[in-house]
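thought: user wants a sequence for this fold. calling inverse folding tool.
action: design(structure=
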């Protein structure tokens, strides 16, 4: 008798943190259905091309998982760019970074309940901890994502569904603007940018039964950046 593989839906699965998470899961035998705007292949992933908040696409992903879902990872996102006063930018960022995760949770909840599964939303230290001169839309969406996760954690808990957030700092992907060299970040106590796989490792922990009592939490993955006082950062940079 063969064991039925665990199932996961990952939005933003073709790049960055989403891709790293998909690769970690497929390497350990998970069945992964990905959703991404691009069709870049990911080994072992059944990729659906389209918007992460498309209800019909999400429903198709759930059907491919057999109606029972062990994990939902919302990693699709639009980076902060701006200009800050662009209403078009605001609407686009809110749609992808906040409304799409809500829609994914709404559509996938029955399947998560069926498997007593877990969801992880990819947030950011921007918003809940830091503001953004370039994109208040991004900061507002990521701060809102934490409120969404806490609310869904309460809603899902009676049925055994957990919902948590990972909040990355400076991660070396195409998503992150390189303001400083990746291996010489004076604004980070560890002195470097993180990797997508380091964030994916926390995501895979949070969806695993070993984290069965972690619910409605925000796990910061930033190398200590948000623990750093400005005076200490300036001292390291020689200012």
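)
observation: tool returned 239 residues.
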């Amino acid at each position: 008798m063969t064991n039925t593989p665990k199932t996961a839906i990952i939005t933003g699965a073709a790049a960055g943190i989403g891709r790293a998470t998909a690769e970690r899961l497929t390497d350990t035998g998970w069945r992964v259905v990905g959703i991404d705007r691009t069709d870049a292949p990911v080994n072992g992933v059944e990729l659906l091309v389209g918007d992460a908040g498309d209800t019909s696409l999400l429903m198709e992903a759930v059907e491919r998982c057999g109606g029972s879902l062990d994990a939902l990872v919302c990693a699709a996102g639009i980076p902060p760019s701006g200009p800050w006063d662009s209403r078009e930018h605001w609407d686009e960022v809110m749609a992808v970074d906040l409304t799409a995760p809500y829609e994914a949770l709404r559509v996938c909840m029955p399947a998560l309940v069926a498997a007593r599964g877990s969801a992880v939303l990819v947030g950011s230290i921007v918003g809940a901890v830091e503001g953004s001169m370039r994109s208040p839309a991004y900061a507002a969406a990521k701060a809102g994502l934490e409120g969404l996760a806490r609310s869904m954690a309460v809603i899902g808990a009676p049925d055994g569904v957990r919902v948590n957030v990972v909040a990355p700092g400076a991660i070396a992907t195409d998503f992150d603007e390189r303001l400083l060299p990746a291996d010489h970040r004076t604004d980070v106590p560890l002195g470097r940018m993180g990797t997508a796989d380091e964030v994916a490792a926390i995501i895979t922990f949070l969806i695993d039964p070993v984290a069965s009592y972690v619910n409605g939490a925000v796990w910061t993955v930033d190398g200590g950046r948000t623990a750093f006082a400005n005076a200490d950062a300036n001292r390291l940079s020689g200012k």
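thought: summarizing for user.
answer: Here is the designed sequence. The mean pLDDT is 91.
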